[in-house]
């Protein structure tokens, strides 16, 4: 997004500051990696005061989580295809594409950075996980209401997301589409 | 290990240098985290020349992998209980204990550090994975030879190790023993 697009963004000053800060964080992560910049550096890059960031997000950890969640929601929205198999296949394929892409392990790297960062980090990681779990459970609840099989979000985490994340972490890529579909089929 | 124990260690100079370098790496990881020291710093701490490290290990990445593998083999050796269920339960419980312990995520942190560290890092991560997979497959092959069910190391990675690692990464700890046993039972 360039300066002009940012200025045109609807929602007034608060939305504009939010977008500038998100962009600054995204840039700093890609330049330096997680854990290698401060709130002051984000503020300077975004052209806002440190205090604006602390007032709105409370901590660097909470800000990082917010940026990651926004990115996940934009790139891997929960699908609604009308069937559980369709939803899970679509979701699994999206996640596979995302985590094997150029900034692939952003979420995993963030989780690692947060989990080594004391109580605020753990709390932020927990908030991120809780929000995505809520979205995933809503998708699974729609299936249950249609009379399809009843799954918990934790089953999806353990047997679809976890194997994909770990293979990417260990450099076992690419993830073959047949193998990804197989994870879904086995769970169903 | 103190200096005197190190000096008494059998195997002569090469084994002594190996132990000193391993200890230096372990200390530096716990003080600074992965990715925050150089071969020169390891050499200085171990009291050896940089060139000795390059000659023996080739790169910092290969050295980190060697240290992690030695640690894994010491703390989570592959069990041989006489039954596949026993072996898998024992192994899963060991891994659960290890990754929720004080230096819990050492392997995952190393994998993340290596995977963001270019071709040498990826190659080192692959070597680590290959060695542990070979050990795991040997355990599974013994079960197959006894006429028990035939599993691949990749099944164990995907459905036992991966869910545990991801839960620890996301701060969803402790890992309940019943849940860990459940992963094994489901796979069998």
TrEMBL record, chains A, B:
DNA-binding region: 38-57
Parts forming coiled coils: none
InterPro entries per record: Homeodomain-like_sf, HTH-type_TetR-like_transc_reg, HTH_TetR, Tet_transcr_reg_TetR-rel_C_sf, TetR_C
Keyword DNA-binding belongs to the record: yes
Record keywords, A-Z: DNA-binding, Transcription, Transcription regulation
Keyword Transcription regulation: yes
Pfam families linked to this entry: TetR_C_11 (PF16859), TetR_N (PF00440)
Membrane-traversing stretches: none
Sequence ranges assigned to domain HTH tetR-type in this UniProt record: 15-75
Domain of life: Bacteria
GO molecular function list: DNA-binding transcription factor activity; transcription cis-regulatory region binding
Protein name: TetR family transcriptional regulator
Species whose genome carries this gene: Streptomyces vietnamensis
């Amino acid at each position: 997004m360039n300066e002009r697009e940012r200025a045109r963004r609807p929602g007034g000053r608060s939305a504009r500051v939010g977008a500038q800060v998100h962009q600054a964080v995204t840039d700093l992560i890609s330049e330096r990696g997680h854990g290698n910049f401060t709130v002051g550096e984000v503020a300077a890059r975004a052209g806002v005061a440190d205090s604006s960031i602390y007032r709105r997000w409370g901590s660097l950890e909470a800000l990082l989580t917010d940026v990651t969640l926004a990115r996940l929601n934009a790139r891997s929205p929960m699908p609604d295809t009308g069937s559980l198999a369709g939803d899970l296949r679509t979701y699994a394929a999206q996640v596979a594409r995302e985590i094997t892409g150029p900034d692939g392990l952003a979420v995993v790297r963030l989780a690692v950075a947060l989990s080594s960062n004391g109580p605020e980090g753990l709390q932020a990681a927990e908030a991120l996980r809780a929000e995505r779990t809520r979205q995933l459970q809503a998708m699974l609840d729609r299936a249950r209401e249609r009379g399809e099989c009843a799954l918990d979000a934790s089953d999806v985490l353990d047997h679809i997301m976890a194997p994909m994340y770990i293979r990417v972490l260990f450099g076992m890529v690419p993830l073959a589409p047949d193998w990804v579909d197989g994870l879904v089929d086995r769970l169903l």
